[in-house]
């Protein structure tokens, strides 16, 4: 089996002489497929004029766009999860690390089952999911219309881009003390943190997607008698929707992070809170179990949005 | 329906006119082909007629009414089909009718009729991504025709097609023009195509774009691909080619 080019690239470049550029120019990703550089490579090439050796015949050029079979892909996917898991298991089984620092996979599983049976896990999960549900919904309800407006109307872009672009660079976590002063340590401050952490990025990414709607499509729509509201609703929105969902998917990961961060600092429920509790009693097995749950939830959110994207954007595939 | 361009001019950069002093009257049901070197302002001219760009001099008149913006009575088709990729073929053709507020039943009937006209009824439910380049252009033309435009503006509509498909499309567009009776203004860089399709060929000069020549095509109204080999056709083709080349040379000499 030949290794994937990207996988070997980093390790091999050191002992390889830089090759003269021989590969085809991949060109813009979305452009028409032009195939190998036939026109320049065929015919008698005057090697002397360029100072380059004529291309070796039979040299195989592997395009970067090469794909793997479904079977290989699934094998690699399984490896990507099972590999680190095996390493973890081997490390803890070797006894080289104190189990108080690195519990074994079995201990973590047990801790997880115990939390599930006692019901703590479910109530914490519900608390965290409730927060991300509300916070992310609010963030999307604010950022998508805002970003859409910015992307569609140049004046809105000029008005809002500087301030949104600036606010994006203020780390949301740094607002935690301020949010606690303003909103107390209840739900409001946690939801607000999540909104703050997501809303600016999602606005700018949505605006970018909306701006990428081809001008020709907008022009044609106008000549078909569609006014601006109709073009916005029937042309720009459907065209941008897959990209908007992509942006949401990226920012959902950030939102999930912010929930846990907020709960680590000030909360009486939630997965983040459960971690700080476990820390107090040095229950690293519990911490690991919760981290696994956090990871699995994140993965679920991601896969759900991916499926939604695939469904909505079937036409762009 | 008469289209008149009066002293039409356009400067994107002040002092550097892309088009200047274009005077043109197109009779109803005419077929005008515009040829000229790349950058002579052919697309800009169509954009002005479509109302997508505002002129910096002169005006565009449709039956004496000044054009101030885009509208469904002037349909536009670009070189690469700007179809709505998420809409089916039928959905694309229906877009303008929806904007018009035509009731569903009448809309469906009209779309079906148009798809028959362009020979794509069997693909009504397909997404544009599945279609060949020629089929996509047929959809784009049907979509523009749906609004019963009085002028159909075509900007190098077959420029991206292979020779065979292109000839099919030329015959097709001629047929549509005769069936529908709309005025067609078509930009092309293919002189043979211009002479084959146009009843009139306008040669644009370059920098600034002006009407360098306005030729009537004295060929039978009923043309087939075989006519491309007739002596009269070839003579006209050579004449136009020489004009385009001369304009191009003159432009090169100036820069
Ligand atoms: N929006 C614009 N802003 C500035 N300059 C423009 C704009 N659109 C066109 N131009 C300029 O106007 C000139 C004519 O452009 P146009 O696209 O009309 O030429 P064309 O005859 O259609 O060329 P081609 O055959 O390559 O399509 C070019 O020099 C171009 O750079
Ligand atoms: Mg052009």
From TrEMBL, chain B:
It comes from the Bacteria. Gene3D superfamilies: P-loop containing nucleotide triphosphate hydrolases (3.40.50.300). The keyword ATP-binding applies. InterPro entries: AAA+_ATPase, ABC_transporter-like_ATP-bd, ABC_transporter-like_CS, ABC_transporter_ATP-bind, P-loop_NTPase. Coiled coil: none annotated. Residues 3-233 form the ABC transporter domain. Pfam families: ABC_tran. SUPFAM superfamilies: P-loop containing nucleoside triphosphate hydrolases. The keyword Phosphoprotein does not apply. GO terms for molecular function: ATP binding; ATP hydrolysis activity. Keywords: ATP-binding, Nucleotide-binding, Transport. CDD domains: ABC_NrtD_SsuB_transporters. This is ABC transporter ATP-binding protein. It comes from Sphaerisporangium album.
């Amino acid at each position: 089996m030949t290794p994937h080019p990207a996988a070997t690239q980093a390790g091999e470049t050191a002992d390889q002489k830089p090759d003269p550029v021989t590969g085809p120019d991949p060109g813009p990703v979305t452009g028409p497929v032009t195939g190998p550089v036939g026109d320049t490579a065929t015919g008698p090439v005057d090697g002397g004029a360029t100072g380059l050796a004529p291309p070796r015949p039979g040299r195989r050029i592997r395009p970067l766009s090469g794909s793997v079979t479904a079977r290989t892909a699934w094998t690699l996917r399984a490896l990507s999860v099972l590999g680190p898991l095996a390493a973890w298991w081997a490390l803890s089984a070797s006894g080289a690390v104190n189990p108080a620092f690195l519990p074994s996979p079995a201990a973590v599983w047990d801790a997880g089952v115990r939390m599930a049976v006692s019901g703590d896990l479910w109530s914490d999960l519900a608390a965290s999911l409730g927060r991300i549900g509300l916070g992310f919904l609010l963030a999307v309800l604010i950022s998508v219309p805002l970003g859409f407006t910015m992307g569609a109307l140049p004046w809105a872009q000029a008005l809002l881009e500087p301030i949104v672009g600036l606010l994006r660079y203020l780390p949301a976590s740094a607002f935690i003390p301020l949010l606690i002063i303003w909103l107390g340590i209840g739900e409001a401050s946690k939801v607000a943190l999540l909104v703050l952490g997501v809303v600016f990025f999602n606005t700018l990414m949505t605006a970018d997607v909306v701006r990428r709607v081809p001008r020709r499509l907008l022009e044609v729509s106008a000549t078909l008698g569609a006014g601006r509201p109709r073009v916005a609703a029937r042309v720009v929105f459907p065209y941008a929707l897959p990209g908007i969902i992509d942006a949401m998917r990226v920012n959902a990961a950030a939102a999930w992070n912010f929930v846990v961060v907020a709960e680590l600092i000030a909360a009486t429920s939630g997965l983040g809170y459960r971690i700080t509790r476990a820390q107090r009693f040095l229950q690293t097995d519990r911490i690991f179990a919760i981290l696994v749950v956090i990871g699995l939830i994140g993965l679920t959110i991601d896969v759900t949005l991916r499926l939604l994207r695939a469904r909505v954007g079937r036409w762009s595939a | 329906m008469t289209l008149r361009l009066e002293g039409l001019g356009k400067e994107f950069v002040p002092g550097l006119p892309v088009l200047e002093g274009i005077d043109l009257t197109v009779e109803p049901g005419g077929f005008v082909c515009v040829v000229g070197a790349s950058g002579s302002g052919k697309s800009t001219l169509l954009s002005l007629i479509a109302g997508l760009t505002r002129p910096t001099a002169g005006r565009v008149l449709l039956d004496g009414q000044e054009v101030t913006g885009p509208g469904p009575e002037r349909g536009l088709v670009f070189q690469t089909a700007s179809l709505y990729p998420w809409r089916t073929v039928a959905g694309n053709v229906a877009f303008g009718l929806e904007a018009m507020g035509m009731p569903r039943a009448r809309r469906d009937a009209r779309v079906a009729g148009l798809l028959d006209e362009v020979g794509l009824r069997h693909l009504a439910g397909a997404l544009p991504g599945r279609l060949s380049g020629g089929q996509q252009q047929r959809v784009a033309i049907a979509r523009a025709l749906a609004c019963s435009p009085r002028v159909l503006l075509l900007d190098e509509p077959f420029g991206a097609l292979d020779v065979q498909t292109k000839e099919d499309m030329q015959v097709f567009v001629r047929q549509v023009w005769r069936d529908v009776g709309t005025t067609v203004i078509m930009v092309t860089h293919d002189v043979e195509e211009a002479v084959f399709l146009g009843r009139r060929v306008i040669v644009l000069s370059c920098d600034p774009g002006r009407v360098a020549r306005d030729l009537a095509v004295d060929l039978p109204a009923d043309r087939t691909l075989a006519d491309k080999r007739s002596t009269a056709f070839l003579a006209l083709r050579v004449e136009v080619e020489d004009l385009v080349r001369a304009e191009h040379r003159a432009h090169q000499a100036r820069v």
